[in-house]
Design a protein that fits this description.
This protein is α+β, with helices and mostly antiparallel strands. It has 1 helix and 8 strands; from the N terminus they run H-E-E-E-E-E-E-E-E.
Length: 112
């Protein structure tokens, strides 16, 4: 019985750490109303629009874990790529894109 309890505890801890380690993955409603899907692509996370005018376009690639990510984000309207970051808090993802780390714009996306 002790082995079963230990195995169950290990399984639950593994499941919890997987969920806690990758909170950026999933579907997000962007500030413009489009839906973006964030998922693993190699050793990073790719941000791809799935609805709206630019559906199918990859607009970002970020690395990180937990609630903090960094990488590049592209404005689909202008096709300009910026240094980007993302911070997850519950069901909100604050995305920030910067030019030279001083001129920044932020958006908050909502988990679907």
């Amino acid at each position: 019985m002790g082995k079963t309890l230990a195995a169950t505890a290990v399984f639950l801890m593994s499941a919890i750490s997987v969920l806690a380690a990758e909170p950026i993955e999933g579907s997000w409603k962007t500030q413009s109303g489009a839906t973006a899907e964030i998922g693993k692509c190699g050793s990073a996370y790719c941000v791809t629009l799935t609805t709206g005018k630019h559906a199918g376009k990859q607009i970002g690639r970020m690395s990180g874990s937990g609630d903090s990510y960094s990488g590049e984000i592209t404005d689909p309207e202008t096709d300009k790529t910026y240094s980007g970051s993302g911070a997850v808090t519950g069901n909100a993802l604050k995305m920030k894109g910067c030019v030279l780390k001083v001129l920044c714009k932020s958006q908050t996306w909502t988990r679907l």
